[in-house]
Amino acid sequence: MNRAPLLPGFLGGLTRLQGEMDKLFGRWVGEPRMLAPSYPRVNVWEDADVFRIEAELPGLRQEDLQVAVTQRNVVTISGGRQPEDGGNGSWHRRERGFGRFQRVLALPAPVEADKVEAKLENGVLQLVLPKAEEAKPRRITVKGE
Q1: What is the DSSP-derived secondary structure letter of residue 122?
Q2: What value, to the nearest 5°, has the Cα angle with vertex 44 and ends 37 and 13?
Q3: Structure confidence by residue, pLDDT tens digits, 79-96
Q4: Options 3.30.1490.100, 3.30.70.100, 3.90.226.10, 2.60.40.790; which CATH number does 6-83+98-134 get?
Q5: Domain range list for the chain
Q6: CA-CA distances (angstroms) from residue 118 to 21, 125, 142?
Q7: 5-60 pLDDT, tens per residue?
Q8: What value does the CA radius of gyration of the chain take, rounded to a whole number of Å?
Q9: Of 83, 94, 23, 26, residue with least CA distance to 59
Q10: Do 56 and 41 touch, CB atoms closer than 8 A?
């Protein structure tokens, strides 16, 4: 029985559960507002040769960010944002989150991890993940009699 199609849904469920637990326990211990469990927001799409991921990461620098590919199709984006210092003033509103984050995305096919390209520009992380040869569509020639 092939359980691979269940993996993306399972990982997403675990991520949501972890986020809900973090929110619940954060309220009890009085933690300051942390980053949302689905941070960063992402767009993921594909064409015949590559998967593309864009993640919104305003205010992060390259050194604040890590990207990893594991199990040939699982992409992890992680990092952290420090809280802003209000100086001697007092805060009126503090909605921008801070702290450590990790977003795990399971792609529907394997990628070539050593050929992944990552670029952070204007607060947007752009990933280009070339598909493994076995994941690319094949054109089959139909022969006649």
Answers
A1: T
A2: 40
A3: 998 887 878 888 888 788
A4: 2.60.40.790
A5: 6-83+98-134
A6: 31, 7, 39
A7: 555 566 667 777 776 766 665 544 444 445 555 789 999 999 999 999 999 999 89
A8: 19
A9: 83
A10: yes
The tokens for 64 are 């604040």
Contacts of 132 (CB under 8 A, 6+ apart): 72, 109, 110, 111, 112
**How much is the pLDDT for 68?**
96
**DSSP result, 38-106:** TPSPEEEEE-SSEEEEEEE-TT--GGGEEEEEETTTEEEEEEEEPPPP-TTS--S---S-BEEEEEEEE
Quick one: DSSP state of residue 23?
H
Q: How many residues does the chain have?
A: 145
Residue 126 has pLDDT above 80, yes or no: yes
Tell me the C-alpha to C-alpha distance, in Å, between residue 85 and each of 55, 98, 143: 25, 12, 70
Predicted TM-score (pTM) of the model is 0.69
The model's pLDDT over 54-81, given as tens digits with 9 standing for 90+, comes to 999 998 999 999 999 999 999 999 999 8
* Token digits of residue 120: 């952070």
- Is 132:44 a contact under the CB 8 Å cutoff? no
